[in-house]
Amino acid sequence: MKPRVLVTLKIPSEDLAPLDGIAEIEMSPHEWDVMPRAEILAKIGDCDALLSQGELRVDDELLEAAPKLRIAANAAMGIDNLDLEALNRRGVWATNTPSAFVESTADLTLGLILSTVRRIAEGDRFVRRGEWEKTGMQPVRWEGMLLGGRTLGMVGYGKIAQAVERRARAFDMKVIHCRTQPSEHPDCRSFEELLTESDIVGLFVPHTLETHRLMNAATLAQMKPGAVLINVARGKVVDEPALVAALESGHLGGAGLDVFEAEPKVNPALYELKNVTLTPHLGGSTRADRQRGRLEAAENVARVLRGELPLTPVNRPGSIGA
Questions:
Q1: Which pLDDT score is estimated for 320?
Q2: What is the pLDDT of residues 123-151, one digit of tens each?
Q3: What is the pLDDT of residues 5-60, one digit of tens each?
Q4: Does residue 136 sit in the same domain as residue 232?
Q5: How many domains does the chain have?
Q6: Residue 66: which CATH number?
Q7: Can you give the pTM of this predicted structure?
Q8: Residue 26 is part of which domain span?
Q9: Which of 82, 94, 277, 292 could form a disulfide with 315 if both were Cys (CB 3.0 to 4.6 A apart)?
């Protein structure tokens, strides 16, 4: 009998090609939505592997319901949905796809920057409501920020940030960054220096105890008056009420947010702010990169089911606290 793999999303079968002939696939029957947790708990008991987009919390409750589970594979860069200690304790591999979504997320970052500083989303809403037809041409009203010569400060300097840097330099921007380890790079700054120098601050860090609400009332106040905050990292890196206050006061000039503290719930106050661009965590959502991520996740699953080591493990089964 072949091993069984539970896939929490309905995805094209070709995205699971590494599992052909190796495993039986049980895929979500829901067209767009992820499989509800209760349904997963009911189905996972006889499954050897789990593949999700990183939306499913893999914890003791789920692992208790899955005694045969050998691997939980994220088709995602993030791993904050994975209780690594619980997975280690139960001898279950956990993997992610650390490179699959770099280019898509970098593209979206530039899109959020442009939409916010050139007021594209705001202008789209204005036209759709018929207000342009009523008011006529008001050129001064729509003046925004020219990117050329402005400073983009990147909090974190991983693969996505470096891909954003390449794009930003094409717009003639100055790009600086901060990182956790000391560096002699001429564009590296301390976190405090970055906040005070940057016209646009982009967040590219994982959510950890150290980065939880990294952008709060105090750090937002250190940003330049009129500066813009862009978050494509994790929602909990930003204190949303503090961000709302900074925007409402006029201290910040705008924000572009792809992630939220309690997503899919969004702080209602953000809906009322014209100078904010909101997107539904679609950073990696291009067909090419989604397929690449799923293929890499499926390859990790296939390797474990064959008794091999996965390509991109994020834990050490059998250890505690890894």
A1: 62
A2: 999 999 999 999 999 888 899 999 999 99
A3: 999 999 999 999 999 999 999 999 998 888 999 999 999 999 999 999 999 999 99
A4: yes
A5: 2
A6: 3.40.50.720
A7: 0.91
A8: 4-98+286-305
A9: 94
User: For residue 61, what pLDDT is reported?
Assistant: 97
d(CA 283, CA 203): 13
Tell me if residue 263 is catalytic: yes
In a domain, 291, yes or no: yes
Catalytic residue among 179, 234, 290, 294: 234
Residues 78 and 136 in one domain: no
**What single letter denotes the amino acid at residue 77?**
M
Residue 320 lies in a domain: no
